[in-house]
Amino acid sequence: MALLNTLIGAPPGMPARTLLVRLAAIGAVLAGSAGTFAYVGGWLSPGALTPARVIDRFEEVNGPHPGFRRNHAKGLCVAGRFASNGAGARLSKAGLFADGRETPVEGRVALAGGQPYAADAEATVRSLALRFRLPDGEEWRTGMNNIPVFPVRTPEAFYEQLLAAKPDPATGKPDPERMRAFAAAHPESATAAAVIKARTITAGFADSTYWGLNAFRFVAADGSDRAVRWAVVPEGPAQTVPAARGDRNDLFDAFAATLAQGPRRWHLLVTVAGPGDPVADATRPWPAERESVDVGTLTLTGTAPEAAGNCRDINFDPLVLPDGIAPSDDPLLSARSAAYSRSFTRRSGEEKPPSAVAGAPSRGEVR
Amino acid sequence: MPSARFNRPARLLHWVMAALILAMLLIGVGMVTSLSGYGALVALHRPLGILILVLALLRLVNRRLHPPPPLPADLPAWQRRAAQASHVALYGLMLAMPLVGWAMLSAARYPVALVGPVVLPPILPRSPMLYAGLRSLHTILAYALFGVILAHVGAALLHGLIRRDGVFASMAPWRPRRPGEG
């Protein structure tokens, strides 16, 4: 044992037993630390649903499309501005709601799904994602869809539904048996699907209402804190260019042509939850009589094909929020943020093929 | 005659940063695999990272003004070299991790939001490829930092429990009972 003492520099008088016990204690501290790290990092729970597995499933269902968003893969950049009317300042201290404040906005219209070259179809869910650029570097990013409720309540249900709704190669449609099994396991999704199916589908992007779907919290300057949902609702009768039926990009082309004729306006409506309204369940609508506050006008002025440096390279992460807007405890919010981030990280490192929507840019500046 | 112990600011910074850095490594490795915790953990990760960057800079200044006590004269040369190399790595990684994090968020055009309305300016131009590279680097450096910390903790405990040569006592938050005893 004297050799061991010399080797590791222990005093010659330290008994072998003491030495071994202390060495074992040091080993235990190191093994415990490494084990904690591995546990927290998920290595000991390989079955857990992770952001990477959600994105893996998109890739499995849609096939590989490197360089594109794994969902809402087909899109077109838009630019515009948001003019606040001051009514939102009572609800949120976020600077963009100050009376008369005008905030530059860039965004993206897209079709849901992970197929970047799919032909436009009227019933495909349309989305509008926006990035409000506030002074001093603050931003508000939000992704909204033209459906009044979200089809699933939890990230786990979302993950299951992706596979259940995967088109059967033989029929081109989802397997009805699997869809039935999913609906049976998730009655809230069956109810939401009926609400979504009953919605009015408008002519195109220009006359669609886009709902934020998840609840957030608006925090006012006086510290008051309210659960809210928001939507942008098109202004006035639809003066839109009709889509040329049968063209693969008819909805996008019609929208670009509409904005080329002149700007389109939407009103940002913020709905405040009442007592007992489901804040953590995006499948359930809030009662129609809830107070909706028109907080200002979103004007979209132009479109541009996705390209380096514009909306293509923005992750419309729903948790990029200014001071005055905060997440609710809706479980989809953190999951969306995590999955978007994973999709963004993967596509950022991939070569980016041109978008299927590559028409000439319309008027209006798009950065 | 150099002091046998690190000065009080050095000890305070060491133990506060030890807690912060271990918390950051666990937050970081946990958040990237968590759907439910991601949002809250990322919001904590950014300001903590910038806090660590500031503290690491303060620590370098203090170290320059108050050099650490010398290692025991009887320490074998290879252990002396390992100690020096691991401290260079620790300081390098303490500074590099927050800077790479800030740079990668800048390249991705995420706002580097800290607390309330405070947002740091970008330190790199927008570039998805640059972001992807820095994002991988951030992970690799985090594993490296965790590895160097394990080596550091193992060596510190060897000094404190087995060699009992005063090295552990020089950074211990408490006063040594007898000179030279860890």
From TrEMBL, chain A:
- What's this protein's function? Has an organic peroxide-dependent peroxidase activity.
E.C. number = 1.11.1.-
Biological process according to GO: hydrogen peroxide catabolic process; response to hydrogen peroxide
Q: Which InterPro entries match?
A: Catalase, Catalase_core, Catalase_sf, Catalase_SrpA-type_pred
- What keyword terms does UniProt attach to this protein? Heme, Iron, Metal-binding, Oxidoreductase, Peroxidase
> Which molecular function terms from Gene Ontology are attached?
catalase activity; heme binding; metal ion binding
- Catalase core domain: which residues? 23-367
Q: Which PANTHER family match?
A: CATALASE (PTHR11465:SF9)
To which species is this protein native? Methylobacterium tarhaniae
The family this protein is said to belong to: Belongs to the catalase family.
- Catalytic residues at H72
Per the record, its GO cellular-component terms are: cytoplasm
Instruction: Write out the residues that bind heme.
Output: Y340
Region annotation Disordered: residue ranges? 341-367
SUPFAM superfamilies linked: Heme-dependent catalase-like
Swiss-Prot/TrEMBL cofactor(s): heme
Question: Which parts form a coiled-coil structure per UniProt?
Answer: none
Taxonomic placement: Bacteria, Pseudomonadati, Pseudomonadota, Alphaproteobacteria, Hyphomicrobiales
Q: What is this protein called?
A: Catalase-related peroxidase
From TrEMBL, chain B:
Q: Where would you say this protein principally sits, based on its record?
A: membrane
Domain (Cytochrome b561 bacterial/Ni-hydrogenase): residue spans on this chain:
5-173
| Lipid bilayer topology | Multi-pass membrane protein
Q: What are the entry keywords?
A: Cell membrane, Electron transport, Heme, Iron, Membrane, Metal-binding, Transmembrane, Transmembrane helix, Transport
Say yes or no: keyword Metal-binding present.
yes
Transmembrane domains' residue ranges: 12-32, 38-58, 88-120, 140-162
Pfam families in alphabetical order: Ni_hydr_CYTB
Q: Where in the cell is it found?
A: Cell membrane
An example Gene Ontology molecular-function term: electron transfer activity
GO BP terms in the entry: respiratory electron transport chain
* GO CC aspect terms: plasma membrane
Essential cofactor(s): heme b
Family named by the database record: Belongs to the cytochrome b561 family.
The record's annotation in PANTHER family points to: BLL0291 PROTEIN, CYTOCHROME B561
Name recorded for this polypeptide: Cytochrome B561
